Amino acid sequence: MPKDSTPADVVTLDRYDRQILEILQHHGRINNQELAERIGLSPSPCLRRVRALEDSGLITGYRALVDAKRLGHSLTALLHISMDRHTPERFANFEAKVAALPQVQECLLITGQEADYQLKVVVHDMDDYQNLLLNQITRIEGVTGAHSSFVLRRVLEHRPVPSHPDTPY
Amino acid sequence: MPKDSTPADVVTLDRYDRQILEILQHHGRINNQELAERIGLSPSPCLRRVRALEDSGLITGYRALVDAKRLGHSLTALLHISMDRHTPERFANFEAKVAALPQVQECLLITGQEADYQLKVVVHDMDDYQNLLLNQITRIEGVTGAHSSFVLRRVLEHRPVPSHPDTPY
DNA sequence: CTTTTTTTGGCATATAATTCCAATATCATT
DNA sequence: AATGATATTGGAATTATATGCCAAAAAAAG
């Protein structure tokens, strides 16, 4: 019987699982033998734990990271979008249109008076950006405003989600 | 001799490389045999290409994706930070302080009158957020303003960087 | 069309993943 | 502290995958 009640879908992890998550968030393609060695377990329980973390949905997938600049996408922008009406239809339509644009790396529905969505987009240059903004995004039904910020430098990116509870100051 | 001059570090890829990048950005831990099969090559040239993409720096790494909510981080926020002075020392100090906070998933230096940095942070709840904001971030030297947005829903996340040139409208 | 260069496919070998089970450790209870 | 029940581990055997090599095929250059 559990000593403490936590929401059903929030998991409790021991040190091995935390180490696994930590390492896999940095080195997603590390092999199991090396991973096992690093956490101080033999390969078979280590693999079982990784599979359990995947099956439980805690690890949702693996991604290769790609250097956008080397692919010719030298401009990254944050786009704040406001909508005229906050109806499910408006939102659903916007989201579908935006999902069809390959330049959109991320789309978040956010709070705030200034915007309803934040998009992160990558493009080749300012011309492409202008084109994307004026010919694609602002033409989506219900979009009343768009405010652009450009990413000058990526200070931190893809950092691991803490597997410990938050530090209480 | 190349027919066309492109910036030295921007690469040109054939269809196999593009397929590899596309697939690995979705399934970062796919095995080489499966990958080879999907792109229509035999395993050995496929692996050679993957290694070449890694060695060239086009693939910068691999990451496991973790469900933050399942780890107890139910609140994600975007924090726009403005600084008093735009000196290298101010920036370097801010960036170092922020890098020491495990809740910070991303930190971007951006253009715009409203903010100098955008942080993406994950916390357990609003109390933790308040604590992070008031006791940690706003206390960093030079921070004059902080503006919060909360993520209501992640519409799109971790989308692949397009490996084709931008669609010209 | 021929030569040169690059890339591929298949095979042999090395390395890693996976399964199974006995042994060990952990936990709750008395 | 001892007991029994449960969960977890480590190692060996097996299966699957990655890696290196080379001859053959393809692509590019002349």
Tell me which oligomeric state these chains represent. homodimer
What do we call the CATH topology of the largest domain in chain A? Answer: Alpha-Beta Plaits
Measured between the Cα atoms of the first and last residue of chain A, the distance is 32 Å
Q: Which stretches of chain A are low in confidence, meaning pLDDT under 50 for 5 or more residues running?
A: 1-8
Strand order of the largest sheet of chain A: 3-4-2-5
Largest interface: A-B, 75 and 75 residues
Shape summary of chain A: elongated
> Share of helix among residues of chain A?
25-40%
Total of helices of chain A = 5
Count of individual beta strands of chain A? 5
CATH level 1 name of the largest domain in chain A? Alpha Beta
Architecture (CATH level 2) name of the largest domain in chain A: 2-Layer Sandwich
SSE inventory with pairings:
Two copies of one chain form a homodimer.
Chain A (H helix, E strand, L loop, with lengths): L14 H12 L5 H8 L3 H13 L3 E8 L8 E9 L4 H12 L4 E7 L6 E7 L2 H12 L5 E14 L13
Antiparallel strand pairs in A: 2-4, 2-5, 3-4
The first copy, chain A, binds a DNA duplex (30 and 30 nucleotides) through α3.
Describe this structure in words.
- The structure is a homodimer of 169-residue chains.
- Chain A folds into 2 domains: 15-55, Arc Repressor Mutant, subunit A (Orthogonal Bundle), CATH 1.10.10; 69-150, Alpha-Beta Plaits (2-Layer Sandwich), CATH 3.30.70.
- Chain A has helices at 15-26, 32-39, 43-55, 88-99, 126-137, and strands at 59-66, 75-83, 104-110, 117-123, 143-156.
- Mean pLDDT of chain A is 92; it is low at 1-8.
- Chain A is an alpha+beta fold and 169 residues long.
- The first copy, chain A, has a 4-stranded antiparallel beta sheet with strand order 3-4-2-5.
- In chain A, helix 2 crosses helix 3 (43-55).
- Chain A has 5 helices and 5 strands.
- The two termini of chain A are 32 Å apart.
- Helix content of chain A is 34%, strand content 27%.
- The interface between A and B is large, with 75 and 75 residues.
- Strand 3 of chain A pairs antiparallel with strand 5 (143-156) of chain B, so a sheet runs across the interface.
